[in-house]
Amino acid sequence: MGEPGLSFMAKFTCVENTTDKVSTTALLQAVTRLLVVLVCAGLFPLASGADEQEVLFRETFNDLGNWQTVIFPKIKKHSTYSIEKNGDRHYLRAESKASASAIVYKISFNAYEYPRAAWRWKVSNVYAKGDARTKEGDDYPIRVYIMFEYDPEHAGAFERMQYGLMKMLYGEYPPHSSLSYVWANKDDPETMVTSPYTDKAKMVFLEKGIGRVGTWQDEAVNMVEDYQKAFGARPPARARIAIMNDSDNTGESSISYMEYIEVFK
After folding, report:
1. Strand runs (DSSP E) across 53-155, as ranges?
2. Does pTM surpass 0.85?
3. How far apart (Å, rounded) are the C-alpha atoms in residues 153 and 205?
4. Fewer Cβ in 10 A, N or C end of the chain?
5. Which segments of the chain have a pLDDT < 50?
6. With left for phi above 0 and alpha for psi between -120 and 50, is residue 124 left, alpha or beta?
7. Do 24 and 86 reside in the same domain of the chain?
8. Shared-domain flag, residues 146 and 23
């Protein structure tokens, strides 16, 4: 794409060398006009967002082929995940009605090589009974989980025994720990709290309360830095991403949307 620009620049240089009627100022003005034309034509694009080579994946939700559904055996009603279209745009639509289930991206990744994530989301409402500090209120209209995988090579003897038993019961290792980036139901003085279910899960409040309900919001996080703030330690290397809208504890309902999500360096 750069060749047309170089060709025109060479022609301008030749003009300056062969005639004394073209001043340096005129040349600079001509080059500036050329760059404007090239940018408008898409031949000299301006930088926007992360470099493509630095992006591990960018999901724009044309379909759900890259995701698998995860249900919880003790929860009978499951949230629904579908694709909604508006012109040439596609969105993930996540709906819960006193329900819970999640979708998980099929491929894990190295969080140290790709520590950042970004997405755009929107919620129809928050939950009146939602409370981040109680099990009864542990519901959110949307959340992005970063689930860090258990690594037996870096575990102590007691932890290996614990996870070994859980693998025997469930057929695979459960996550070692997780960050849950949430749209919180209420304004809260804190930005990060421990899950009421386990100290292995930390909730990070990116949006709070009703102030921005119904509007698209862009989020960007550094998973490794947030993990270190939350747990005071470095995270396991391998991680996976999940998305969930749940309301099984509060018994309420909501619809939320996500336009894209990406993981990058």
Report:
1. 55-59, 67-70, 80-86, 89-97, 102-105, 109-110, 116-123, 140-148
2. no
3. 32
4. N
5. 1-22, 24-28, 30-32, 34-49
6. alpha
7. no
8. no
